[in-house]
Amino acid sequence: MQTTNRQVNSNYDNSTKTSRIATVHRTTGETDVQVTINLDGRGTCTAATGIPFLDHMLHQIASHGLIDIDVQAKGDWEIDDHHTNEDVGITLGQAFNQALGDRKGIVRFGNFRAPLDEALVEVTLDFSGRPHLSYGLQIPTQRVGTYDTQLVREFFVAIVNHSQMTLHIRQLDGINSHHIIEATFKAFARATQMAVEIDPRRAGVIPSSKGVL
Predict the structure, then answer these.
(1) How deeply is 91 buried, as exposed, middle or buried, from its count of CB atoms within 10 A (0-12, 13-18, 19+)?
(2) How high does pLDDT run on average in the chain?
(3) For residues 96 and 41, is the Cβ–Cβ distance under 8 A?
(4) Average pLDDT over residues 126-155
(5) What confidence tier does 6 reach under pLDDT thresholds 50, 70, 90?
(6) Taking the mean position of all CA atoms in its chain, how far away is CA 189?
(7) Which end of the chain has a smaller Cβ tally under 10 Å, C or N?
(8) Average pLDDT of the segment spanning 120-144
(9) pLDDT confidence of residue 211
């Protein structure tokens, strides 16, 4: 399969206060996905993936992470949602990686527990440059509407590998599939917001004792 990526980024510059914006356009024989993010946004979202539940979850990342997100995707939906779901995760992960650049000045770590009615999910993450996913969701049903709940893990695998983050997801409570998944995306959004914030005490400095991530 041939894959092409076109990436444009404008990383945070403490001297000029420019926004951290990235656009990634990824095309394969199965999908055509374009993602634009602004890490210093206000939480606006435009999502047209052809997968309504995934669009709903992308809105959660934008709104609760205060990240502007625009996702436009075309995929082989006649087969199933798997390729589009995964490739949106890949492209969003690449956009995060491009927008963060060398990660100078960021807090780097984030942690949040999000409740949604009976569901409670904790997300802890580190923009470490070392991809790792520890996934602890137990979703009781195979589908939410038409969305295959196995695709939640596939989405986070994709975003982790291509944003180069360490991500731990823990389900502390919950019996409703929709609530569990939505609480996960909300917790991910808030943890991400914490991690990508600029720490004014080390603006312009890579947040690692090694001096590199």
Answers:
(1) buried
(2) 93
(3) no
(4) 98
(5) low
(6) 8
(7) N
(8) 98
(9) 74
What is the greatest pairwise CA distance in the chain?
A: 51
The pTM assigned to this predicted structure is: 0.91
Whole-angstrom Cα distance, residue 60 to residue 62? 5
- Residues found in the chain: 213
140 vs 176: CA distance, rounded Å: 7
Rounded-to-integer distance, Cα 167 and Cα 44, Å: 24
* Identity of residue 17: K
The CA distance from 160 to 166, in Å, is 7
HSE at residue 80, side-chain half, CA atoms within 13 A, is 9
Look at residue 160 and give its three-state secondary structure: helix
Distance CA 109, CA 97 (A): 15
Q: Exposed, middle or buried: residue 96 (CB in 10 Å: 0-12, 13-18, 19+)?
A: buried
Q: Cβ(174)–Cβ(118) under 8 Å?
A: yes
Q: Is 64 helix (H, G, I), strand (E, B) or coil?
A: helix
Tokens, residue 50: 């052809």
Distance, CA of 145 to CA of 187 (rounded, Å): 22
